[in-house]
Specification:
By secondary structure, the chain is of the alpha/beta class. The protein has 9 helices and 18 strands. The strands form 3 sheets. The chain has an 8-stranded mixed sheet, with helices on one face. Strands 3, 4, 5, 6, 15, 16, 17 and 18 form an 8-stranded mixed sheet that branches. Strands 7-10 form a two-stranded antiparallel sheet. A hairpin with a 5-residue loop joins β8 and β9. The chain starts with a strand and ends with a strand. The N terminus is likely disordered.
Length: about 375
């Protein structure tokens, strides 16, 4: 195994300090990043235990022909090589909304990004907000809502899939979540990580069939603020790690040549390295048969690791976002190339200026 880093980071947080039940944060105490992660891990563990029973009771694998995805025809026709791009967080509210009001949505796409997107058959982005007219804000600290009309511009510039498996797509409630899903479909794109219930939300999305099947699996690996875990109601995927591992194994057993890409929403915000638990889980997914992990949530570009010849992008950072600090402005787009016999993943470094992603000149 060999590891390499895109950034020289601050020291990682040790999982040895994580306790099963962190002490509550009392009045006047300092709410540190580590305490926040401890609390989130504890809440997530409780949620995952409830989810575990649901996923154990259902069949985790359904025939390929019944999966959600591109349908009967391959997205890339008869090509012997398929090219994919995966971007980080896309926000259509707050500072980005103000940018759009002044300059329009098209101005968010530089010539360099448009040129890059034109080289790919499939472009997957993480939509970090609901795009809906529904106004039913959940009681939480940061609440976003983008305008549905802007989705068509994302499609025009090359996006084919939008991942909703994150902690902000639920900001306008379950109705807003499902309306966003419908709006994405109306704009000609395919949503991922969302469904009428947990089982549907966790279903893999078929990105293409040629030159071989390429699947995208998603899971939100963090606790949600003031969001009731109701497995039979509209939600995003929070599939437990053991079920993800089992799903990957069954997929690979049924179709050994299939390519499996896993996208997790996880990690500590504004940090540069994953904690040991994340590395352990990432390795377990690769051991199960995943071909690459392309993840997000931290709003930073984190460690890129190579494990058993497979790339793990712990967090690829922002894409269209309004956080101006240098820590949040560096990111990457992942370029994935799939042939009959090879899967190649490489980062394309970007820098974000005034909400607009730009390809770094030295790339």
């Amino acid at each position: 195994m060999r590891s390499f880093f895109i950034v020289l980071a601050v020291s990682s947080l040790s999982s040895s300090n994580l306790t099963p039940n962190p002490s509550p944060i009392g009045e006047g105490s300092i709410y540190t990043l580590q305490q926040k992660q401890q609390q989130e891990q504890y809440i997530l563990k409780k949620q995952q235990q409830e989810l575990h029973n649901t996923f154990q009771e259902q069949e985790l694998y359904t025939p390929l022909s019944n999966r959600r995805g591109v349908g009967g025809e391959a997205a890339v026709g008869e090509a012997v090589k398929a090219s994919f791009l995966f971007t980080g967080d896309i926000l259509l509210d707050r500072g980005v909304r103000r940018f759009i009001e002044k300059k329009g949505v098209d101005a968010l796409f530089s010539q360099g990004i448009d040129s890059l997107f034109s080289t790919a058959h499939i472009v997957v982005g993480n939509l970090e907000c609901p795009a809906t007219k529904v106004k039913a804000p959940v009681f939480k600290r940061y609440i976003f809502r983008g305008e549905p009309v802007h989705l068509s511009t994302l499609r025009k510039h090359g996006f084919t899939h939008l991942n909703l498996c994150n902690n902000h797509s639920i900001d306008q409630g379950r109705e807003g979540l499902m309306d966003t899903k419908r709006n994405i479909e109306r704009a000609g794109m395919i949503p991922a990580g969302v469904g009428r219930n947990m089982a549907e939300a966790a279903q893999p999305v078929l990105l293409t069939k040629k030159p071989r099947n390429v699947w995208l699996l998603t899971s939100l690996r963090m606790a949600l603020e003031n969001w009731a875990l109701l497995n039979d109601r509209p939600c995003v995927s929070q599939e437990p790690m053991d079920s993800l591992i089992l799903r990957i194994r069954r997929l690979k057993k049924s179709d050994p040549k299939a390519v499996v890409i896993v996208s997790l929403h996880w990690g500590g915000e504004h940090t540069l390295r994953p904690v040991p638990l994340q590395r352990m889980e990432a390795h377990a997914l690769i051991n199960a048969g995943a071909d690459a992990l392309i993840c997000h949530h931290t709003h930073t570009l984190q460690t890129i690791e190579e494990y058993k010849g497979k790339k793990i992008f712990y967090s690829i950072g922002n894409f269209i976002f309004d956080q101006p600090k240098p820590l949040n402005s560096k990111a990457c787009v992942v370029k994935l190339t799939v042939t009959e016999n090879e899967v190649k993943a490489e980062p394309v470094p970007i820098i974000i200026r005034n909400c607009v992603p730009l390809i770094e000149r030295n790339h």
